[in-house]
Design brief:
Elements (H helix, E strand, L loop, with lengths): L9 H32 L7 H8 L3 H5 L5 H24 L2 H4 L3 H18 L1 H9 L9 H23 L7 H20 L10 H15 L8
Length: 222
């Protein structure tokens, strides 16, 4: 005689738990997206939890189910942006197309990627500056991003430089990251110029800066 599956059976309960996890992840993504938009335009203490929840289309209870307070939420929004930048960087620099490039072409592609990352994640830098006195570890996500990003740069760039007889140390890549990021950080804060973050001229400038730091010659027709 067959028995009906109980709602508490492992298979059904697993399905229920999975559905809850999916909904929870969707709510988390909505909140993070709303946080990026809100904190780009205002200080952390100028935005209420209610405003954040409304922007995300979730309840205040949904917010507090995931974050202890607004400060921990702000930090997670920063960390999320930094993680996304690292993942994008590693994913794009390890494509077969990038791997097969010569050193000069790779540097130009790297410059485009670097500028695009700053364009898409202006929030991370603007919010860190605007909330300079409102959080203890305001530069933590950016500092960790720089350290991890430099390691990825070395791993993906070394093979290209080796083809033309150039070798650079881990310190060289940290300096490269510091120099290029400083330029783009300034462009985020002073977007009117003279060279705007969104201009093609910025990509060319970054490419030349990377080449100079690594000791690679770029042809003027590229």
């Amino acid at each position: 005689m067959h028995q009906k599956a109980k709602t508490g059976s492992p298979s059904i309960q697993s399905g229920i738990n999975h559905a809850k996890q999916v909904r929870s992840q969707a709510t988390y993504r909505k909140l993070i997206k709303a946080g990026k938009e809100i904190f780009t335009d205002r200080l952390m203490n100028e935005a209420s939890v209610q405003q954040i929840a409304n922007k995300a289309g979730v309840s205040v209870g949904g917010f507090y189910a995931r974050f202890a307070n607004k400060e921990s939420f702000f930090q997670e929004v920063q960390e999320s942006a930094a993680r996304e930048m690292l993942l994008d960087m590693e994913r794009l620099l390890t494509t077969s197309q990038m791997i097969d490039m010569d050193a000069a072409s790779y540097i130009r592609a790297l410059a485009k990627l670097w500028v695009r990352m700053f364009r898409r994640n202006r929030f991370l830098y603007i919010a860190s500056v605007r909330n300079v006195n409102l959080q203890e570890d305001r530069w933590g996500p950016i500092r960790r991003l720089g350290i991890a990003g430099s390691a990825i740069l070395k791993e993906t760039t070394d093979p290209h430089l080796a083809k033309i007889g150039i070798k650079r140390s881990s310190k060289d890549y940290r300096i490269l990251s510091q120099v290029v990021s400083a330029l783009l950080f300034n462009a985020v804060l002073n977007d009117p110029g003279p060279i705007k973050l969104k201009s093609k001229e910025m990509v060319n400038l970054v490419a030349q800066l990377i080449a100079n730091q690594l000791g690679v010659t770029l042809s003027t027709d590229g």
